[in-house]
Amino acid sequence: MGRCYYLIYLLTTGVLLLSLDLVTCQSDSCFSVAKLRVLEMFYNGDISVPYTCDDMQFIQHGIGCKKKCYSVTETLRNMFGCNPSFVFPQCPLRPAAQLAPVVDSECETETPSCTSGYEYRTIDGSCNNLWNPLWGKSDRVQNRLVRNAYDDGFDSPRTMGCSGQLPSAREVSNIIHSAGEDMKFDPRLSYMMMQMGQMLAHDMVLTGLVKRSDGEALQCCKEDMENPACFPIEVPQDDPYFPPGGCMNFGRSKARLDCKGIRQQVNSHTSYIDLSMVYGATDKEALFLRTLQGGLLKAIDKKLPADETDELCELSRPQHIPNYYCLLAGDERANEQPGLASIHTILMREHNRLAEQLSHVNPHWGDERLYQEARKINIAQWQNIVYSEYLPLVLGPYIMRKYNLEVKRVGYKDTYNPRTDATITNSFAVAGFRYGHSLVHRFISMMDFDMNEMISPEPLDHMFFEPKLYHSNGDYGPDYILLWTSTTKCPFSDRHLEPSIQRLLFRDKNNDSLDLAAVNIQR
Known about the structure:
523 residues, alpha+beta, two-stranded antiparallel sheet, 13 helices, 13 strands, 27% helix
C-alpha cells in the first residue's frame, strides 16, 4: 500500500490537490478513485469555470509509487459522450431514456401551510415540525449519512469495488449469511421481538419499487431484463439451491432527483412513529380505511377488512369461501406473513375499542373527533411500547441513558428538538434496521388460550402472502398466532438468515423465490 495523490492540472489556476487515500499502487485503484473525485466535484457544483477535458488529464502517483500518468479523457468520453475539445461542464449527460425511471424532481417542493394550534398529527407527517414542515413527511426522499456510490456519480448502481468488479450479492449471502441446519435461540427473548421490530420498521419506512407502466411488478429475469430499472442478481455457478448461473429478480427502488440531479430513494411512509402502517400515509388512504361512523376503522367482525386489489396475496383456497380474503391495512405489506397481519389486527381493534369507549364518555363527539382522539391515544400507546419495552432490549440501558431515550415512570418529559431532521436515513432504512432479518424463524404456528400448541409448525415460506392461518378458528386466528409468537423463543441476532428467507423468500407458483440477504446487499 502507498499514498496516492491525485493532481489535476488546471490550465487557468495551476494545480488543485483533490484527495489523499491509501490504494494499491500496482493497480488502477488510484486512477479509479481520482475519476470519482472529479465526477463528485462536477456534480457538487465545485467546478464552475470552463475547464476542458484536457485540463483534467493528468493524475500522478506520489511517494513510494512508480510515477504513472493516466488520462481521464477516455472515462469522460465513455460516461458523458464528450471529446477533449468540449467544455467539461457542458459534457452531455446520458439521455433520459437510458436512466432508470424516477418519479420526478424534489428540488422545488411547495411547503405546506401549518396551523400551530392544530391538535392532531397530520396523516402524511407534514407540519410535525412547524419550523420545517416537510421534515419526516411521507413521499419524500430519504436523507443520507454518506455520499452515494453510484458508478456514474448520479444514477447507475454500484458494480465496482476497490479491486474491480463486485461479487454477486447472492455469492456474498451464501458465504456470510447462510444459516446451519439447527436454529439457535436467544433464551432471554420471545419471538415477539422480531414481530415488533418488523411492525416498527413498516411504521417508519416503505421504500417502494419501480414498476412497469401497466403497474405490474418488473420481471427482470424475463421480459423486462432490458428495463433500465432492472438490476437482477446473478446466481453463482456453485450455488447450493438456485440454478447455477441463473438470475434472481430485482428491480430498483422508487426515486427522485435532488437539486443536483442525483438519484435519491423515496420513503412512502412518514418517518415518525405514528402508526402510518395502520392509518395510511396519505389523506386518501386514511379516508378509505375509515367507516366514517363513530370514529371507527373498517373491519370484518374482529379482523381486518378485505382488499380486493392486492395482487401479491395468493389465496390457496377458493375465494368464495366465507371470510377468506386478502387483507387491507394502511400498509401494502400487511399480507406478507400471518404474524404481521395479526399485529395489524391488534392495533386496528385497539383503535376501534378506544373510539367506542370515547363515544360512551363523550356522546356529543362526532365521527372526526372520535377518530382523531382514538388515533392519538393509539399512537401514544404504541410509542410507549417502542421506547419502554422494545428499544431497551435492542440498545441496552447505557445507550438508552446516553441519548435520553428512557421513558419516565412518572410524569412527562419534552425532548423535542425542532432542529433535528426526523427524515429517515437511507442507510438506516436499507441496512441498519434490517438487523431483524436474522431474528426471523423458519416456522410459524398457533397456540390456544390454555397455552397448547394447536398445529404442527408450518414452514414460514408456505405462508408468505397467504392468509390461511389468519382466517382459521373464526375470529381467533390472529390471537392464536400472537400467543405462539409471544411464547416462542426468538432466534439469535447474528449474521445468519434462516432458509425461509435466505432461499425461499416469497416463493411463487412457479417455484421462483428470493434471497433476502442478497436483496439487502443489492439494494
